[in-house]
Design goal:
The protein is an alpha/beta fold. The protein has a single domain, classed as TIM Barrel (Alpha-Beta Barrel), CATH 3.20.20. The chain is 39% helix and 23% strand. The chain has ten helices and 16 strands. α5 links the parallel β5 and β6. α9 runs parallel beside α10. The chain is globular and about 65 Å long. This is GH18 domain-containing protein. Pfam families: Glyco_hydro_18.
Length: 365
């Protein structure tokens, strides 16, 4: 009998191991839905995603509680209500901040226990009120090491509050995620600083490095704004992901960002058309707009093996972007690095779900 019990115990442990492995290997296939886009939440094809973010709510600059605009009060329940009815179902996360938010508001918010608590409590209240599955912070970007140290305290206190609320309410704990710079350490508009990797490892479900906007209108030459590799510089996704892992953030807690838009330039010389050509950066186009532009203008389309990106040009117009081939390669890179998954910025920019569909298939196969 003892030997039978041992065998059964071993079989049970093996089964639990398989279950755990299956749970750990479930990819995060996420995307942000800007609440001001024309695409309604009801039209999101959830078969390509596991998580959708509502973007964005902002904290009040004085009280640090979340502001719900009149528009938000209509769109928030529509967003969660519609997506909860879809098949397959997806998790919804409430994202706070964004590229257009005032980073100084976040800096003031994290600066004391009282203001952090006011912010945290408000995020939980709003997330529960509208039926979200998690909360997401998109602070672009903490300005210095003091901000980063306070961010670590925010993560710690936020997770503690989420655990406490879950225990008290008997509901599944809200997820805690955060959009971050593409590299764990950086020097942009300020002194060198690094994200609190140990706090992220202990308290955050995952962080989402924004692996795009490497090049743009601030430069006088063409560039691939989401290059996977760049042998000439450290501005690339492959370079950015590595220090996150070296800093101690588990690879499974990294969800790699992918853009559904490209950046545009005006060439100085229409006969000099490669990456790095002298040019004036002048804006962005969605993937859908790029496809239509290329067809309508008979643009030359090139795949750059070095950066794993595409570019097209006609006359003096030049666009750097991702297409099906490069997105497949980047998703497979994420999987090869054992990352937690990927996310897109942003819904409403794809064309007939082409990129979203191919990314999902590339991960699964």
């Amino acid at each position: 009998m003892a030997s039978v019990r041992i065998i059964l115990s071993l079989l049970l442990l093996a089964a639990l191991g398989i279950i755990a492995q299956c749970g750990a290997s479930r990819a995060i296939k996420a995307a942000y839905w800007p609440s001001d886009v024309e695409i309604p939440a009801s039209s999101i094809d959830t078969s390509h995603f596991t998580h959708i973010y509502y973007a964005f709510l902002l904290p009040d600059p004085t009280t640090f509680r979340l502001n719900e605009t009149v528009s938000d009060q209509t769109k928030l329940p529509e967003f969660t209500g519609m997506l909860q009815k879809r098949k397959p179902a997806v998790n919804t996360l409430l994202s706070i901040g964004g590229g257009k938010s005032d980073r100084n508001v976040f800096s003031r918010m994290v600066n004391s226990s009282e203001t952090r608590t006011a912010f945290i409590n408000s995020t939980i209240e709003v997330a529960r009120k509208y039926g979200f599955d998690g909360v997401d912070l998109d602070w672009e970007y903490p300005a210095d090491e003091r901000d980063m140290s306070n961010l670590a305290l925010l993560y710690k206190e936020w997770r503690k509050a989420l655990d406490k609320e879950s225990k008290r309410s008997g509901r599944i704990r809200l997820l805690l995620t955060s959009a971050v710079y593409y590299a764990s350490g950086f020097q942009v508009d300020g002194p060198p600083r690094s994200y609190p990797s140990q706090a992220i490892r202990k308290y955050v479900d995952w962080v989402s490095p924004m692996c795009f906007d490497y090049h743009g209108s601030w430069e006088n030459f063409t560039g691939e704004h989401s290059a996977l590799y760049d042998p000439k510089s450290n501005i690339s996704t492959s370079y950015g992901i590595s220090p996150w892992i070296r800093a101690g953030v588990p690879s499974r807690k990294l969800v790699m960002g992918l853009p559904l838009y490209g950046r545009t330039w005006t060439l100085q010389n229409p006969n000099v058309t490669g990456i790095g050509a002298p040019a004036v950066g002048n804006g962005t186009l969605t993937y859908e707009q790029i496809v239509e532009f290329n067809v309508q203008n008979h643009a030359a389309v090139k795949f750059d093996e070095e950066s794993v990106s595409y570019y097209s040009y006609v006359g003096v117009s030049w666009i750097g972007y991702d297409d099906v081939g490069s997105v497949r390669r980047k998703v497979r890179f994420a999987r090869s690095q054992r990352l937690g998954g990927y996310f897109f910025w942003a819904l409403g920019q794809d064309k007939n779900w082409i990129i979203s569909r191919q990314a999902s298939r590339a991960w699964d196969h």
